[in-house]
Amino acid sequence: MPVTPSQLKKLKSEARAASRRAYAPYSKFKVGAAILTKSGKIYAGCNVENASYGLCNCAERTAIFSAVAAGEKKPDLQCVVVYTSTPKATAPCGACRQVIYEFGPKARVVFTCRSKDRQDHTITELLPKAFGPVDLV
Ligand code: THU
Questions:
Q1: N or C end of the chain: smaller count of CB under 10 Å?
Q2: Which pLDDT tens digit goes with each residue over 86-101?
Q3: Distance, CA of 110 to CA of 25 (rounded, Å)
Q4: Contact between residue 37 and residue 77 where contact means Cβ atoms under 8 Å apart
Q5: What is the CATH number of the domain that holds 94?
Q6: pLDDT category, 1, cuts 50, 70, 90?
Q7: pLDDT at residue number 111
Q8: Which is it for the CA torsion 129, 84, 115, 1, positive or negative?
Q9: What is the mean pLDDT of the chain?
């Protein structure tokens, strides 16, 4: 199902609001993400850092894990919007691409920022030849 312009607008505003809730005292790089599931629900997340730097969790994964924790057994991701308050849109990291693919092998991934710069891709453009659930046979 295609994402409507009003859904995209809402996703961007949720991702932006979530970025303001980021806990990023080490990198100072605040990221917000919002996901749309097939059920039409939106979940948001922000990055959460730790003094033990390797334990930092990205905004995209926070949003997806929040959906699972909220009861979506296997959220079917239609769209993921990532927001950073930067002049250029920020691409999701490799780990997040893998987690997006798990729950949305056809998901649309949009990165937005404070300017008009914006990128819009499918997850398989961002993570070609992905390893996923169907490979575990
Ligand atoms: N970060 C995200 O939240 N998402 C990404 O896709 C890339 C990186 C966060 C992790 C860390 O808290 C900060 O940005 C700097 O890497």
A1: C
A2: 999 999 999 999 999 9
A3: 25
A4: yes
A5: 3.40.140.10
A6: confident
A7: 98
A8: positive
A9: 97
Q: Is the pLDDT of residue 18 over 90?
A: yes
Rounded (10°) angle between helices 59-69 and 94-103: 30
Q: Model's pTM, two decimal places?
A: 0.97
Residue whose CA is closest, atom 14 of ligand 1?
A: 29
What domain range includes position 64? 5-136
Q: How far is the CA of 137 from the centre of ligand 1 (A)?
A: 32
Q: Is 27 helix (H, G, I), strand (E, B) or coil?
A: coil
Residue among 48, 45, 42 at smallest CA distance from 63: 45
Q: How many other β-carbons are positioned within 10 Å of the β-carbon of residue 108?
A: 19
Residue 60 annotated to the active site: yes
Q: Pick the residue whose CA is nearest to atom 6 on ligand 1.
A: 92
Q: Which two tokens stand for residue 128?
A: 């070609």
Number of domains in the chain: 1
Containing H/E element for 119?
Answer: strand 118-122
Asked whether the predicted pLDDT for residue 137 surpasses 90, the reply is no
CA of 116 to the centre of ligand 1 (A): 21
Nearest-angstrom CA–CA distance, 32 and 84? 7
